Amino acid sequence: MENRRVKKQTCGTICLKYLLFLFNILFWLAGGAVLAVGVWTLTEKSDYISLLNSSFYSASAYILIAAGVIVIVTGMIGCCATLKEMRSLLIVYLILLLCIFLLEIVAGLLAYIKYQECFPLCFQLDEELRQNLKVNMQQKYQQPGEESVTQAVDRLQQEFMCCGSNNYTDWKDSVWIQRADNARLVPDSCCKTPDDLCGIRDHPSNIYNVEGGCIMKLESFTLSQLYILGAVGTGIAFLQLVGMMFTCCLHHSLKEEPY
C-alpha cells in the first residue's frame, strides 16, 4: 500500500510539472505577442499618433512593451523553477504572478475611476485632438523643418484612405495650399490614385471623401490598440490564476514527496 501511495504522488508531481510547463509556454507566448504589438505600434504607427500631440496614446505602446517584457521574464523564471523543481524559485515565481495580477487589477480600477471622472470632458478632449491634428496639417505640412510631419500626414491619408482632419475642405486653409505658386486644392496623398499634381481636383471621384476625416480613422486605430491591451490583459489575468493554482500544487507536491 505504501509503495502504491508513493507512486501515485510521483505521477501527480510529473503531471503538475507538465501542466505548469505548458502554462509557462502559453504565458511566454502571450508576453511575446504583447511585446510585438507594442513594438509594432511604436515603430510603425508612432508618427501618426504624434500628430495628435497627445502622450496618452503613445503611452499605451510603452505599456504594452513593458508588460510584454515582464511577462516574458516571469515565464522564463517559471520554466526554470518547474524543470529544476526548485521550491524557492517556485515561491519567487508565485510572488511575481501575484504582483502582476494585483497590478492589473489596480490599473483596471484606476482606468475605470479615471474614465468616470473625465466622462463629461470626453467630447472636449476629442475636440482638442481634432484641433491638434487640424493645426498640424494646416500649419506644418510641407513647411521647412517639418519633413516628419509631412511624411506622417501623407502616410496617414494614404493608409487610412482619408483626406484632411475632419474632411478635405480643411486643406483650403492650409499655409501650403494657399501659396500663390501652388495649383493644388489638396495634397496628392489625398488622391485615390496618387500622382504628381493629382490634387488639383478635389472631386470625390478623385480624392478620399470619408465622413469624419482622418481623425475618425486615427481614433479608431488608437482605440483598437487599447482594446487589444484590455483583451490581452484579461486573458493573461485568467492565465495567471491558473498558473498560481498549478504553482501552489506543485510546491506542495514537492514538499510532501518522499526522496
- Total of DSSP H or I helical runs spanning 4+ residues: 7
Distance between the termini: 17 Å
How many structural domains?
2
Low-confidence stretches: 1-9, 118-125
- Biggest pleated sheet: none
Strand content: under 5%
InterPro entries: Tetraspanin/Peripherin (IPR018499), Tetraspanin_animals (IPR000301), Tetraspanin_EC2_sf (IPR008952)
Subcellular location: Cell membrane; Membrane
Membrane topology: Multi-pass membrane protein
Family: Belongs to the tetraspanin (TM4SF) family.
Question: What's the helix and strand layout?
Answer:
Blueprint: H1 2-44, H2 46-50, H3 55-84, H4 87-118, H5 122-140, H6 147-159, H7 213-256
Helix pairs in contact: 1-3, 1-7, 3-4, 3-7, 4-7
Question: Briefly, what is this?
Answer:
The protein is mostly helical. The chain has helices at residues 2-44, 46-50, 55-84, 87-118, 122-140, 147-159, 213-256. It is 72% helix and 0% strand.
